[in-house]
Task: structure prediction
Amino acid sequence: MRAAEARAEHPVLKRLPRPSQRPSEQPGLREVMAQFATGVTVLTSAGDAAHGMTANAFSSVSIDPPMVLCCVSRAARMHASIVSAKSFAVSMLGADQRELARYFADWRRPGGLAQFDSVDWTAGPCTEAPLLTGALAWLECELRQVYEGGDHSIFLGEVVSASRGTGREALVFFGGGYHPVTSQVRGATA
Ligand SMILES: Cc1cc2nc3c(=O)[nH]c(=O)nc-3n(C[C@H](O)[C@H](O)[C@H](O)COP(=O)(O)O)c2cc1C
Result:
C-alpha cells in the first residue's frame, strides 16, 4: 500500500492536515518542537575551559547504572568544554530562575569562570563544575560516550552525584517562552 493510501485509511492520520503543503509552508522543526514542554537546565563544566549553557535537550536514560544525556550544538562553546573536562553538571532551574536561563543562553556573557561572577554557585564535590544556587536539583556526571547527532553531539553521562533543593516550582520552556509549574504534593491541603 502506498503511503498516501495508508494515510487516507488511518483513523488518526486521515484527520490531520494533508502534507500537501510545500516545505516552505510547513511549520519548521523549531516551531513544532516548541510544542514539546521541557524543563530548563544549565549545563556546567569545570577546569581550564569552565563554562555554562542553558539547555533543554536533556533526558534521563538509565537508572542502573544511573545515566543521563544532553545534546549540545557542536558550534557551542559548551561542546569543547565538556569534551575537555570529560564531565559535566546539570542544574535544574526553578521558576524564579528565568533570568539565569536567559543569561546562560546569551552569547555575550563572558567566557570561562568569569561568567559565573554574577551568579551564586558552589563547586560540585565530584567534578568541581559549578552548581547554581537555588536550582531545584543538581547532577554531576562523568562523560561516558559521545554520539554524533547531526549538528549536535549527544553526551551520555554517568551520574556520580545527585541532590535536590527545597524549591517546588519548576521553570518550563514551552511555546518559545518560560513558564512556572507548581508541583501538587499528594495529601497536602490547599
Ligand atoms: C530554553 C533554551 C534551551 C536551549 N537548549 C539547548 C540545548 O539543549 N542544546 C544546545 O546546544 N543549545 C541550547 N540552547 C542554546 C544555547 O543555550 C545558546 O546557543 C548558548 O548561547 C550557547 O552557548 P555557548 O556557545 O557559549 O556554549 C538553548 C537555549 C534556550 C533559550
